[in-house]
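Fold it.
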Amino acid sequence: MIENATIVGDVGGTNVRLALAHKNSKGHIDLSHIGVRPVEQFRSLELALADWLKDVDGRPKSGVFALAGVTGADEVRFTNSDWVVSASKVKAEFGMDNVMLVNDFAAQAMAVPATPSNELIMVNKAEAKEGAPIVVLGPGTGLGMAGLLRVENGWKVLPTEGGHQAFAPRSDIEREILSVLSRAFEAVSYEHVLSGPGLLRIYKCLGAIRNELTPFETPPEVGEAAANLTSPLAVEAAKTLALILATFCGNAILGMGAQGGCVIAGGVAEQLSQFIMTNDFIERLRNVGPMTNYVRDTPVYRNNDKYAALKGAAMFAQ
């Protein structure tokens, strides 16, 4: 059984999630032996994988790893960690027959058709246009984005680096945040503000703009304080991030013609979901001038399945 399974990995800048994937009798993906390893505790994917395999009997012969970086070559360098992953090196070190590297949001996109409807939480209620592209995006350690298109034999993923588009503020406070960040970055992208580190940057910028103390020094601290409503400045940072995310979603729908829907994924969106499920988010999302009706009539969901990227990686294996 183990030998017939596929090792799947969701390799981000903060954590690497690993599991064995099996196709069940109904053709759906089942995951087992799910484990999480912090990236900072390991110098490479190989070391994290070897540590996880201690709890697995046997050695599967294939693996698919979803990576937070540009894929398409044997070697992938990350934009938000110092890891370098080589398919041929992993294959040789663990005696595998096949190793595939895919973009993490390509995996998130591939997971959407297999995601149970109760895991897709409706944010903007509308009817999907049959045959139209779907866009999948979301903040985590970075900001990912991919397209999904129905084709004759299934689904085709369109990987992108849309998270690195230039940040376009829509309010006075966002313009002030951009002004502050422009002193540190020559080109301020959406990823600089729509990500875990981005939440911390917004929090620090607001502190500088408001002349308030900013005692939190890590993204999890800001996120936890915002989610628990224990820090007004952290809450304002979370609300600001959510509105910027709404703008990004609207831009992505327009840019990709994604009237099939927009799916928000990523750990930051999960932690700050209470700030996304609001009328303010929907109003910002829809308010795109002449194309308001276009975005208003596109369904937007939040994917509540934290293992979606693992299942999407398994779909690539099929």
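The first strand starts at residue 6 and ends at 11.
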